[in-house]
Amino acid sequence: MLITWFDAREAEKFGAELAKFYLEQSISTAAMKDNKKAVNKRKRTLDQVAEKLNEFKSREKLNIYKKGKLSKAFGSMLNEAALDSIQMDEVMRWLLVRL
Q1: What is the pLDDT of residues 15-73, one digit of tens each?
Q2: Cα 76 to chain center, whole Å?
Q3: What is the dihedral of CA 8, 9, 10, 11, to 10 degrees?
Q4: Nearest to 66 by CA among 17, 7, 2, 1
Q5: Residue 32, number of CB atoms within 10 A of its CB
Q6: Is 60 helix (H, G, I), strand (E, B) or coil?
Q7: Rounded to an integer, what distance in angstroms lies between the CA atom of residue 87 and that of residue 61?
């Protein structure tokens, strides 16, 4: 049982996939000229990310270690993509609240 507690491979993989999805959606939002449409698109993107996260949480039992690995993988992908630091902080807080 202790071995499975530390097996965070699925959580790390999911965190990276979730960040990739978020980044793909963010690129299309950044190209929008209309600020109101961009805000609505960003909200829809976060709603989709929340849905994916809830589905994963229903499949996988996330302990504190796995949550940490998931969020670290998510943050690393955002950092590698050179996301604006303000937006990155905001999204990371949003994710941590939902974990």
Answers
A1: 999 999 999 988 777 666 667 887 888 899 999 999 999 999 999 999 999 999 999 99
A2: 10
A3: 50
A4: 7
A5: 14
A6: coil
A7: 28
Q: Residue 77: which of 12, 25, 19 has the closest Cα?
A: 19
Q: Which two tokens stand for residue 70?
A: 């998931």
What gap in Å lies between CA 26 and CA 70, rounded to an integer?
A: 20
The tokens for 84 are 């604006």
User: Does 18 or 5 have the greater pLDDT score?
Assistant: 18
Tokens of 34: 């209309």
In angstroms, rounded to a whole number, what is the distance separating the alpha carbons of residues 55 and 44?
17
Q: Is 16 exposed, middle or buried (0-12, 13-18, 19+ CB in 10 A)?
A: middle
